[in-house]
Predict the structure of DUF779 domain-containing protein.
Amino acid sequence: MVEKVTATETAIAFLEQLKEKHGPLMFHQSGGCCDGSSPMCYPEGEFLVGDSDILLGTIAGTPFYMSKVQYDYWKHTQIIVDVVDGRGGMFSVEGPEGKRFLKRSRVFTNEERATL
């Protein structure tokens, strides 16, 4: 099965720590306005998704959403969530931890695109 979104082991371990502290979480890929293009992490249900958002998949049981318009630019790539030291988006739950989620990507192979 080809995953549209995945994460590094480091990001998954950090996400598990955040879930212990905050409960169930969700990601929404920022559109690039106030918080750049970082994956934003919220307590589940705190960020309202609508008809203009799509669910790309889950990371360690945590849903990852992106707007349909933005997905049109990224549909040829697999999004890989990582975590690095530094300040992230001001509304994302990892901000006070001195770390931030970061989006990496790779282009799908021809075989993967055919599966999708």
About this structure: Residues 9-22 form the longest helix (14 residues).
